[in-house]
Every structure is written in structure tokens, then in C-alpha cells.
Design brief:
about 240 residues, mainly alpha, 11 helices, about 80% helix, globular
Length: about 240
């Protein structure tokens, strides 16, 4: 495959993946981050996976804020973002210095744990729980692309589906801004990826609209089974690359 053809193939794969990810995010409140992570681990340099991953999801989360803005718990969002800011700027310098093998191995482990670990049935009872959740989730996400903590905790707050979708979108949009600023501050160059990021953000608006329409007609149980199998295969491949 020539250089130009390879670049075109990577562009198509990532943009198509972003469309699919935004559909799943809108339909199920989750799944998009893992889909993007699975795709980027197969086509991008290891050091670029996490920084680019943050922006590929930006269009999806912003669109969900627009569509579900009346259901967002903004008090929770702002508390989350206070902790998120600290988590991003502590995690970014550490990530930039990590060897590729450690990044690949750690991302694979996080993916497998997030997919197969039983749901956390813990409801935070601390005075400012969402500041702590924001810090821990963002720190893990900054280092390994996928935090997972927010997803597990928010499901046990008593929120209904639209509140979860909107509130998570608010939290994750702010987190993406902090993470991107942190990586850029530490020297990561986004310029080579701006074209594919822009296209992915644009197409995710379409994906979110599609996801809203089909969400109520899909079997979540079947989706989760197929989803786990496919992502597990991807994670095991990445684990092999890291360990090798």
C-alpha cells in the first residue's frame, strides 16, 4: 500500500469509526469511547492514541449536550470538572514520558477490566463525591484513554436514561478540553491529525441524531455481548503488542 493510500485508509477508518461511536453513545450512553479506542489502537502510533482519542469524541459529547441540555445535572457536572482539571494536568506530563510498551499494555488491561468487571454498586456518600470522581476518572483517562469510573458510578445515582446521557456529555466534554490542553502543554503535536479530527467531529453530529432515533429499538443485551467479544479481541491484540 502506498503512503497516500494508507493515509486515506486511516482517514476513512477513523471517521467511520467516529460515526459508529457517536451512534452507540447516543443510543446507549456508553460504548463510543471503547469503539474509538479499539480503532485508534489499530491505525495510529501508540503515543498518539490517547491524545487524539480525546478529540475524536468531542463532537459526540457536544451534540449530546445540545440535544439533552434540559436533562443535565449541571451541579454534578461542575463538581466533576473541578476534579477533572487537576486530574488532566497531573496525568498529561506522566503520559508523555511513558514508553510505548507500557501505554499499549496498560490500555489493553483497562479495556478488558472496563468490559468484564462487574458493575460497581457503590453510591458515593462523601461531601463532594463528584470532585473525587472527576479527578480519578480524568487521571485514569488521561493516562490510558478510558476512565470508566464515571460510567460505573453514575448508573447508581437514580438518574433516568436521558439525565445520564446529558450529564455524562457535560462531564466528558469539559474533560476532553482539559486533557487536550494538557497534552498540548506537554508538547504533543496535534497538527498532523487536525484533518481527521475535524471530519470525525463533524460526522459525529450525524451519528448522534441517528443514535437518538434507534436507541429505543435495539436490544442492549445482544449489543453488549457482541461488543464485548469484538473489543476483547482488540484488547488482546494490543496486549500482545505491548508485551512483545
Amino acid at each position: 500500500m502506498t503512503g497516500a493510500a494508507r493515509i486515506d485508509a486511516i482517514f476513512i477508518i477513523i471517521v467511520t469509526g467516529s460515526l459508529v461511536a457517536s451512534i452507540f453513545n447516543a443510543a446507549f450512553s456508553a460504548g463510543g469511547a471503547i469503539i474509538i479506542l479499539a480503532i485508534t489502537t489499530t491505525v495510529l502510533p501508540v503515543q498518539a492514541i490517547v491524545p487524539v482519542h480525546s478529540l475524536l469524541l468531542f463532537g459526540s459529547t457536544v451534540t449530546r449536550i445540545i440535544f439533552f441540555r434540559s436533562f443535565i445535572d449541571w451541579r454534578m457536572v461542575w463538581s466533576f470538572l473541578v476534579g477533572s482539571l487537576a486530574g488532566a494536568f497531573i496525568g498529561a506530563p506522566i503520559y508523555i514520558e511513558l514508553p510505548d510498551a507500557i501505554i499499549a499494555t496498560a490500555i489493553a488491561i483497562v479495556m478488558l477490566v472496563a468490559l468484564w468487571l462487574p458493575q460497581i454498586s457503590w453510591r458515593p456518600k462523601l461531601r463532594h463525591p463528584w470532585v473525587i470522581v472527576g479527578f480519578l476518572h480524568t487521571l485514569i483517562s488521561t493516562l490510558f484513554a478510558y476512565g470508566a469510573l464515571l460510567h460505573s458510578v453514575i448508573l447508581h445515582t437514580g438518574m433516568e436514561r436521558r439525565q445520564i446521557v446529558g450529564t455524562m456529555a457535560g462531564c466528558l466534554t469539559g474533560m476532553a478540553v482539559f486533557k487536550t490542553a494538557g497534552y498540548a502543554w506537554c508538547g504533543f503535536d496535534y497538527v498532523p491529525y487536525l484533518e481527521v479530527i475535524t471530519a470525525s467531529v463533524a460526522i459525529s453530529f450525524l451519528g448522534t441524531m441517528i443514535g437518538r432515533k434507534i436507541g429505543d429499538y435495539l436490544s442492549e443485551e445482544k449489543f453488549r455481548l457482541v461488543f464485548r467479544i469484538l473489543i476483547t479481541i482488540t484488547a488482546l491484540r494490543l496486549l500482545y503488542v505491548g508485551l512483545r
